[in-house]
Amino acid sequence: MDEQGASEPAADDPGEWGTAEGRAMIRLLWDPPPPPTRGPRQRLTLDRVVTGAIEVAAAHGVDELSMRKVAQHLGVGAMSLYTYVPGKDELFELMIDRAWAGRALPDPDLPWRAQVEFHAREAWRMYQANPWLIRSNLWRMPMGPHVLDAQEDLYRAVALTGLTEATISRVAGLVESHVFGAARSAVTDTSLSTRTGVGYDDYWESRSSFWGTYYSPERFPTMTRIWENGGFDQEYPDEAWEFGLRLLLDGVERLRDGDT
Prior knowledge:
Blueprint: H1 20-30, H2 46-60, H3 67-74, H4 78-81, H5 88-100, H6 112-129, H7 145-159, H8 165-196, H9 200-206, H10 209-213, H11 221-228, H12 241-256
């Protein structure tokens, strides 16, 4: 018994580790119930519920995702969804793992850097195809088969550098975080443009009075120098995130070569 009086799980019984809710979520991810083979044909399956939720998030945004809206989309009563999944949070975990299933893995015979770049581009493609994924939490990713398969392969690719295990973990996390951050910015801007009808260029044009009123070279000398030398002329295409990826992996190259 612990200080709160809760029973400690038996050390030799992994099936009782964690909490009841956590164990149920793991089973949904790894061993979902198959559709019944006897009795009347069910209108729904867990797979169809997850698909319907992804369709709702894709059409209306993840902020509009709810059990009620998924049920309406599927043409059933909201309570019927709880036969398949405990609630919206658990459903979102299943959605994330489903989306990660679409990530291809690199050729293991490629050099380590090419493999890591492949992983990064697959992650970028995944976020572009599933913009609602920007609401996921990289620190609390579902322990699902598709998420973990992709993460395992990224660790394997980074491990080819010969760096320490702690550094391998950090590098892999930095790669995923970099792509996620760039994707989140791009998706958020696109979503905002769609919702407000104000595009990127229109936004800055609407605030152009700033340059003739409050802006001064004396207060912002570095910005002024960059602007006068064309540093702000290039717009930021989707591929701009790869600039940061190159810098990151250049640093890994130096670390691997002992040039710190």
